[in-house]
Amino acid sequence: MEIRVFVAVSVDGFIARQDGAIDWLPQPDGSAEDYGYQELLNASDVLLMGRRTFETVLGFGEWPYGSLPVVVASSCLSREGFPSWVPGTVDVSSRPLADLLEDLERRGFQSIYADGGMLIQSLLRLGAVRELVLTRIPVLLGSGRSLFGPVDGDIGLEHQHTRSWANGLVQSRYRVSR
After folding, report:
1. Does residue 35 contact residue 137 with C-beta atoms inside 8 Å?
2. Span 124-173, pLDDT tens digits
3. Is 64 exposed, middle or buried (0-12, 13-18, 19+ CB in 10 A)?
4. What is the DSSP letter of 84?
5. 129-137 and 170-176 strand pairing
6. Separation of alpha carbons 99 and 153, rounded Å
7. pLDDT tens for each residue of 19-62
């Protein structure tokens, strides 16, 4: 099973403002450029999402993941509390993360897209992440929710590729060394 992280981050390492706002992220400009996001979705069997990220997505007012199965890792949410427009392909799990990953593998999922700061941090501590795609947005927030938290030891990264765009976005792909 392969777990990929694909996330936007400010140059100073934040994925959201302190209050969770992501208003600093570039808005779609009508161009066809999606920075590899659709390719990631097409290559993923399931999206594993943290609770706060899910709550942010609910604020979008429409479901952006089509029919891709989504599992929200949360000890306090339940499917019954979802808005009616959230598709039936979305589930919630309160199981410990290692158990949840085993369950996803048993269910046949081989390619997992993981999203959500706290979830990503937990997956990194477990040694479960295989690939990181970080898109640096040309803004300094000064404070906010950090993508990376404390780790028990160094996590080696093997640089695979870096690409930049005229709007200042810089995307780097790394394989996580094991």
Report:
1. no
2. 999 999 999 999 999 999 999 999 988 888 999 999 999 999 999 999 99
3. exposed
4. T
5. antiparallel
6. 23
7. 999 999 987 666 677 899 989 999 999 999 999 999 999 988 88
Q: Cα(144)–Cα(50) distance, rounded to whole angstroms?
A: 17
The answer to whether the predicted template modeling score (pTM) of the entire model surpasses 0.85 is: yes
CA distance 47 to 114: 6
How far, rounded to the nearest angstrom, does the alpha carbon of residue 141 sit from its chain's CA centroid?
19
Distance, CA of 77 to CA of 31 (rounded, Å): 36
Candidates 11, 47, 34, 20; CA nearest to 120 is 47
Residues paired with residue 161 on neighbouring β-strands, in sequence order:
173
How far apart are alpha carbons 66 and 57 in whole angstroms?
A: 13
Best CA proximity match to 84, nearest among 61, 105, 103: 61
d(C-alpha 120, C-alpha 106), whole Å: 21
Q: Which residue has the tokens 């199965």?
A: 69
What is the Cα–Cα distance from 84 to 51, expressed in whole angstroms? 18
User: CA-CA distance, 12 to 137, in Å (whole number)?
Assistant: 9
